[in-house]
Structure formats: C-alpha cells, structure tokens
C-alpha cells in the first residue's frame, strides 16, 4: 500500500543536470521559492519519452511566464542527456534542466522507481514555492502525458493557492467561475 505524497515536502537531493549546454548542480533548494514541475520519464533514446519532452518544451515559455521551472528526470546520467540533446531534433528544443539520476535516489524519493528495471514511471509532480507537492500524475510506461493539461493543472494550483476558500471544478480554465465550498452548495451541484 502506498501513501500519497500530496502536501508533503520534497526530500533533499543533489544531482547533476544538463542545462543550457552545461552541466549544473541541482538540489531541492533550487525548487524552493517558485513553482516547479518535476517530470520523470523512463529513459533517453526511447519512443514515448521524446514526444512527451518535446510537448513539454513547446509549453516551456508559457510555464516560465507563469513563474514555473521545469526539471525533467530519468535514471540516465547527465552525460547521456547531453548526448540525446545533441542527437535528437526534438530534444534540442528543451531549455529546461535535464537531471540525471543514475543512483535512483530522486526517483525513489518521489515514489516512481520501477525497481526491477531501474527506470522511472512517467511521473509528474507540481511543487509550490514552499516545496510542497500539490499535483501528482503517474502513468504506465506506454501512456504519454499532455503538457497542455499540465499547464491547466498548474494554473488551477496557483489559483487556489492565492484564493483561500475557493476550489476549481473539473476542466476549470483561468477566468472561469470557481466554487466556494459551503453548506449552501451541498446537493446543488
């Protein structure tokens, strides 16, 4: 039985990422003070992974405008991330840090390690500026994710964080009505 990580603080980690043509050190401290997305995928040089990362790269500018940093993570090394970045036109679009997690520590911290394979599930985590996990999405390896829907989830998380007492209904989009839970709403939705 697993325990949900929703509203828990991210655990400490240190890793090397490929970012902007360089190898850079990243830790949980880099995620504090802003909204973050940690986007786990199984492996470089695979099939569904580049489609997901390319899709996320297409929304990166919008996420940056929203004050969100993206960190992709796989159990590959930062060297493999560079090689993939250099070899693939799709991966060349990526401007966010690509964290290498060859020991699996970060992947295990977030509960998405497939131990028998040494690979990560497709796990997405939205983290608030205080380092608390607010959204978790986990997929089987054959099911790709949607960056467009991820943006909507971040928008909803940011909205409720700044509007105490309000909640976002299904398929909510910015500018649409929210709900204020109360006794008056019970049985009327």
TrEMBL record:
<keyword id="KW-1015">Disulfide bond</keyword>
<keyword id="KW-0575">Peroxidase</keyword>
<dbReference type="GO" id="GO:0102039">
    <property type="term" value="F:NADH-dependent peroxiredoxin activity"/>
</dbReference>
<comment type="function">
    <text>Thiol-specific peroxidase that catalyzes the reduction of hydrogen peroxide and organic hydroperoxides to water and alcohols, respectively. Plays a role in cell protection against oxidative stress by detoxifying peroxides.</text>
</comment>
<dbReference type="GO" id="GO:0008379">
    <property type="term" value="F:thioredoxin peroxidase activity"/>
</dbReference>
<dbReference type="GO" id="GO:0005829">
    <property type="term" value="C:cytosol"/>
</dbReference>
<dbReference type="InterPro" id="IPR019479">
    <property type="entry name" value="Peroxiredoxin_C"/>
</dbReference>
<dbReference type="GO" id="GO:0033554">
    <property type="term" value="P:cellular response to stress"/>
</dbReference>
<dbReference type="InterPro" id="IPR013766">
    <property type="entry name" value="Thioredoxin_domain"/>
</dbReference>
<keyword id="KW-0963">Cytoplasm</keyword>
<feature type="active site" description="Cysteine sulfenic acid (-SOH) intermediate; for peroxidase activity">
    <location>
        <position position="49"/>
    </location>
</feature>
<dbReference type="Pfam" id="PF10417">
    <property type="entry name" value="1-cysPrx_C"/>
</dbReference>
<keyword id="KW-0676">Redox-active center</keyword>
<comment type="similarity">
    <text>Belongs to the peroxiredoxin family. AhpC/Prx1 subfamily.</text>
</comment>
<feature type="domain" description="Thioredoxin">
    <location>
        <begin position="4"/>
        <end position="159"/>
    </location>
</feature>
<protein>
    <recommendedName>
        <fullName>Alkyl hydroperoxide reductase C</fullName>
        <ecNumber>1.11.1.26</ecNumber>
    </recommendedName>
</protein>
<dbReference type="Pfam" id="PF00578">
    <property type="entry name" value="AhpC-TSA"/>
</dbReference>
<dbReference type="GO" id="GO:0006979">
    <property type="term" value="P:response to oxidative stress"/>
</dbReference>
<dbReference type="InterPro" id="IPR050217">
    <property type="entry name" value="Peroxiredoxin"/>
</dbReference>
<dbReference type="GO" id="GO:0045454">
    <property type="term" value="P:cell redox homeostasis"/>
</dbReference>
<keyword id="KW-0560">Oxidoreductase</keyword>
<dbReference type="GO" id="GO:0042744">
    <property type="term" value="P:hydrogen peroxide catabolic process"/>
</dbReference>
<dbReference type="InterPro" id="IPR024706">
    <property type="entry name" value="Peroxiredoxin_AhpC-typ"/>
</dbReference>
<dbReference type="InterPro" id="IPR017559">
    <property type="entry name" value="AhpC"/>
</dbReference>
<dbReference type="InterPro" id="IPR036249">
    <property type="entry name" value="Thioredoxin-like_sf"/>
</dbReference>
<keyword id="KW-0049">Antioxidant</keyword>
<dbReference type="InterPro" id="IPR000866">
    <property type="entry name" value="AhpC/TSA"/>
</dbReference>
<comment type="subunit">
    <text>Homodimer; disulfide-linked, upon oxidation. 5 homodimers assemble to form a ring-like decamer.</text>
</comment>
